[in-house]
Amino acid sequence: MRILLVGAGGVGSAFAAIAARRDFFEAIVVADYDLARAERAAADDERYSAVRIDASSADAVAALCREHRITHVMNAVDPVFNMPIFDGAYAAGADYLDMAMSLSRPHPEAPYERTGVKLGDEQFAVASDWEEHGRLALVGMGVEPGLSDVFARYAADHLFSEIDELGTRDGANLVVTDEDGNEIFAPSFSMWTTIEECLNPPVIWEKQRGWFTTAPFSEPEVFDFPEGIGPVECVNVEHEEVLLMPRWVDCRRATFKYGLGEEFINVLKVLNTLGLDRTEKVRVKGVEVSPRDVVAAVLPDPASVGPRMTGKTCAGLWVTGTGKDGAPRSTYLYHVVDNEWTMREYGHQCVVWQTAINPVVALELLATGVWKGTGVLGPEAFDAVPFLDLLRDYGSPWGIREMEPAGA
Q: Average pLDDT for residues 346-361, to the nearest whole number?
């Protein structure tokens, strides 16, 4: 297996650090628009090399694949670049993985009621082409989406006979401080992506209605996260799980709720009010810039905040329905990562590390032939047990917490 890793930011650099401890691949070519950043990530292992790439060009991606005899393209950049990377991999005959699917576009007349172009629609539209050519595009293979989708497959196969709701719930108690120890606003993940998913109309899936939308930050609920994180208010956010899970897992409802916190929600609302969430370029003193790019540029780089971050992050799936024994069941499958541990063991903060480990595990399963497939597939399309077993082998255990079923 020869991998082209596109993107050497927080997640891409963590991917490189994790993969360096494994032996399932022959080489990784680390590619970034900033060659120096690619070279820093490539320094982790002698099997790595660094190159510069224009991720907006499918031709550039395809050319690198051919030059380096790439078998698998790993997309670790903001999803605005998904389609050229996806198309470039296909043109070069390589398999493809990403951690966030092609972007959505709200319905022009009823954005908070009906879906427009959904997350992943552009990729699923060409699934038959990938299948006919015997190629695999494994989409949404991060942590959320990704590990949460693996949990959905595991719950359906081993824990539940009928599933009422697949509810992804994400929360944390992370704190970032400045040099004087004062808490500051510093997102732990790509601000560009965070704005995109949090301000777009959230999507919900119900068996009787299909996919529909609601208003941003709707249906707040307090969810009690495990391992000391505790209660966090979560709200509806647009996310890939809702677009992926119902394609392969039988359920009555699928949702995604994110523990953003009041301060973060207020910041996002202000950005939206001022138009600073826009991606269309505006002219400022003779220079054309995207307002969202400016916001992302002035905030701390998520890859750099690890040394000043404390706390844990939790990704998980709350499944309700009927257990294999015929009784009502409510179960939370989860993965908690402590920032102190990831910084000590890998030198990367916990949110990017938790995202990056899952595609590494998936690539190892593909390399060994345990996972096989063609077309455009989500993590739910594969057996969950080998993935969850291998995740533990990587030193990153997952957990199950039984909860009181509704009405019990």
A: 96
Position 407 scores a pLDDT of 61
Are 160 and 153 in contact by the 8 Å Cβ rule? The answer is no
Q: Is the pLDDT of residue 230 over 90?
A: yes
> pTM here?
0.92
CB atoms within 10 A of CB 68: 18
Q: What's the pLDDT tens digit per position in 202-228?
A: 999 999 999 999 998 899 999 999 999
Q: What does each C-alpha distance from 397 to 82, 137, 285, 390, 391 come to in angstroms?
A: 30, 27, 52, 9, 7
Superfamily designation of domain 2-138? NAD(P)-binding Rossmann-like Domain (3.40.50.720)
Is pLDDT at 185 greater than 80 in this prediction?
A: no
Q: How far apart are alpha carbons 150 and 165 in whole angstroms?
A: 15
pLDDT at residue 186, rounded to an integer: 65
pLDDT at 408: 59
- Residue 78 in contact with residue 33, Cβ under 8 Å? no
Phi, psi of 237 (to 5 degrees): -140, 145
Please give the structure tokens belonging to residue 165. 């709701």
Q: What is the DSSP string of 293-359?
A: HHHHHHSPPGGG-GGGEESEEEEEEEEEEEETTSSEEEEEEEEEEEHHHHHHHHSS-HHHHHHHHHH
Percent of the chain beyond pLDDT 70? 98
pLDDT of residue 303: 67
Residue with tokens 């965070």: 194
Instruction: Retrieve residue 285's tokens.
Output: 């003193």
What are the distances in angstroms from CA 314 to CA 9, 11, 143, 176, 199? 21, 17, 10, 17, 22
Give CATH for domain 147-350+397-403.
Answer: 3.30.360.10
Q: How large is the average pLDDT for residues 277-288? A: 86
Number of residues that make up the chain: 408
Please say whether the beta carbons of 105 and 276 come within 8 A. Answer: no
Q: Where are the domains of the chain?
A: 2-138, 147-350+397-403
Residue 228 burial (10 A CB sphere; 0-12, 13-18, 19+): exposed
Given a cut of 70, whether residue 156 has pLDDT beyond it is yes
Cα separations in angstroms, 72 against 58, 86, 283, 298, 393: 15, 11, 39, 33, 23
